[in-house]
Design brief:
- The complex is a heterotrimer.
- Chain A is built from 12 helices and 13 strands.
- By secondary structure, chain A is of the alpha/beta class.
- Chain A has 2 domains: 4-245, P-loop containing nucleotide triphosphate hydrolases (Rossmann fold, 3-Layer(aba) Sandwich), CATH 3.40.50; 250-309, Alpha-Beta Plaits.
- Chain A starts with a strand and ends with a helix.
- Chain C is built from 12 helices and no strands.
- Chain C has helices spanning 8-25, 27-54, 66-86, 88-100, 104-108, 113-119, 127-143, 150-181, 185-198, 207-220, 223-235, 243-269.
- Classes of the chains: A alpha/beta, B mainly alpha, C mainly alpha.
- At the B-C interface, helix 2, helix 3 and helix 9 of B face helix 2, helix 9 and helix 10 of C.
Chain lengths: 346, 273, 276
Amino acid sequence: MPMIEIQGLTKSYRVYQKPEGLWHSVRGLFRRQYRDVHAVRSIDLTVDEGEFVAFLGPNGAGKTTTLKLLSGVITPTEGTARVLGFTPWKRENDYRRRFALVMGQKNQLWWDLPAQESFRLHQQIYAIESSQFDRTLAELVDLLDVAELLGRPVRELSLGERMKMELIAALLHSPDVLFLDEPTIGLDVVAQHNIQSFLRYYQEKRRTTILLTSHYMKDVAALCKRVVIITGGEIMYDGSLAGIIDGFGGQKIVTLLFVDDNVPSDLSRFGEVFDVQPPKMRIRVQRSRVAEVMAAILATYALEDVSVEDPPLEDVIADVFNRASHDNGSGDSTQPNQSSFTARTR
Amino acid sequence: MMARVTTWWTILRICIEERLVYRADFALGTLMRFLPIVTQVFLWGAIFAANGDTRIAGKYDFSDMIAYYLLTMVGRAFSSMPGLASGISLDIREGTIKKYLTQPIDMVGFLLLNRMAHKLVYYSVAIGPFALVFWLCRGYFADGWPEPLVMLAFIATLIMGFLLGFFLEAAIGMIGFWFLEVSSLLFVYMLFNFFCSGHMFPIDILPEFARRIIELLLLPYLAYYPAAIFLGKVPLEEIPFRLSVQAGWLLFFIVFCYYMFHRGVKRYSGFGG
Amino acid sequence: MNGTRPSYLRVMLMFARNSLVRDMMFRTNFIIQSISSIGWVLMNLGFYLLIFQYTPMIGADTGWGKFEFFVFLATTLLVNSTVQAFFMPNANEFGELIRMGGLDFALLKPIDTQFLVSLRKIEWASLANFLFGIGLLLFSLAQLDSRPTFVGCLLYPVYVACGIAILYSLMITLASMSVWMGRNQTLYDFWFYITTFSRYPMEIYEGRFGTPLRYTFTFFIPVLVVINVPAALMAKPLDAQNWPLVFFALWATAASLAGSRWVFTRSLLSYRSASS
């Protein structure tokens, strides 16, 4: 039985326009203008137990909305979802006891009190048995190395430390499903790394099903085997990280190291020359043409070294996002893309 | 000069637009303003019912009381500044005060214009219900309209009341430069304001010694004096004196407010914000 | 793994404890708040002392003489201070949260949302007024000619609790409505104005306008029942005329609580989480 099953989930809502100008403001007293925002458009998804899935997408893509739908915080316009067999937006207490949602930069702990006090409140609310609570807390505190910080008011902690406390609070009741919304946003590299290691270790050990949203590639690459790309409220891709490059990376990067600083200037017929630092030069070349281009260059010029690489993942994904926004801009697409990509990847 | 006026007009206009966005607020708010008066009317009705026909402190009968309360509504419409002091101290605490320091107009001036905008908009919508209520209650104004000179004094005291209320509360807000928590001080001010400004009851029904003390304070000028002047409870020869005292307090608080502002900014910049 | 319901009592105690710890962290503020709220009470008391210099009774033949009225005032203090301590800050915050989309954290917890949202924070400083109210009550009762009946004394706390429940229901209904009505200041004002009616003996609402008002605020929005019933139990001997009202008060309490629960639940359906 899959842990999470989503079918045709849709969320739209109405945003009222703020009028400009004195005249429109007065008119606004009598008649308001609005537009409809389609945050999530009929998505389908299935997640099995123990999976660690990343939702990747640009801002406003619908990642956070999806997580909120799955947490029951908001109700959908259409569609169904079942998590652990429950319908999230019914907000049944039995469901709420078994999952947790952590949102980056949003604080659920009492601001003025030490985190310790918020944890104890958590214990009461989730009715966690005393010895189990002590054990779980000790383990989490040890893993995240925050023992000295427990007694300090939350407002005195750094962003990274606060995030760790939020994670502890979320995991105290040993949830079966964990939703993480941009957990490392705004954190410095060290803090990000710490949290990533922790999540990886925790997930391996507990086999918790985790859904993570992020727009940091490092989070995704470090933690998840499965990536779901969401843009404009729709799923564009659902599969492995490597598959993205295969599916979307239409170009390769050829790095040429010439014998001297005399680099030729007429290589643009082979591809896009984008980085020239004599004696080095880098060209983007269409995949299908790589062999032919290599042969031509090697025949004509004297080279010290050559390498052919995949473009960085960030670039590929950024490209996907860009492409998607262009597609969405040109009228309502009815997802012609999704089927072709998901078919290739599983 | 022209540029200044344009700037001020723009700021006023933006503030007005901002106010109009919350429309449900408006509709209800104007209606709600009159509810406390209703209970006061009944209370005084009950007080006079047990009292017979005698005037309170020899000055006020039932009609007078009602008229008095209605007029203090007007006085308070001019002089009450909800959220001013707390807004200033919040801006200071959160650092958003920086934006004022770089704008073409000083913070105090900006806030004054903002308040004017707020009151203009609010009362241009509220003037309907106000006028209606006054018209319905015209029977309580036994003496009718006062003489033109007294009317002038009434208007003068209202306008000065607005400015006085503004600079007084702004000065309290400026304390936020020195102390984080202004809200307790503000509460104390509100307390005294409510009791001593005449909002709760006419100051002149107090026993002699209490009345003398409170009249020395500036607070009665925010609500009591406009109402008392209109109703003729202040003797004609006393009116110019009262107006000058009010003007004096106003001047003091304008200076004090700006002084606090400049000292506060200096201190604030010294701390790096 | 944890299949058990939380103990609402224990959670409540945690809320109380956490709020107390927090209030003690800001000790000066706590003290200033307590003092200023007592200052407020003293001013009101001063006002009524002034009034009673000019009249022996409020309302002709109503029975609300000076010390009877002070019993009424003391009851006002007991009810309002409790509402202010336990529910006011929470209701205000709830109104803001539901409007601004900040309720997510509450919706995630396996505990009744209304309970969580209504009792999270307790303003202990408001209880200074409660103590003052007890003092005023005892003092005034001692000055009265007629002593309250034994039944009256037993029922008094019950009806104070009913009054608190009615005010709470009104408060939470108004706060819930911010989700539809936008900025919440007007609702807060509305609350203030409506409860102003409850602060006076219902007998003052007489006459062409008074009587309909009295009926509206007794039977439609039962605020007049809040203070009048318990105060009358203590200060005025109960006659046959008043008993129906006493029974009605119980019914009004139940109806208010049920009604407010319904509005609360409906408001959650319209909740829109803030975009992030």
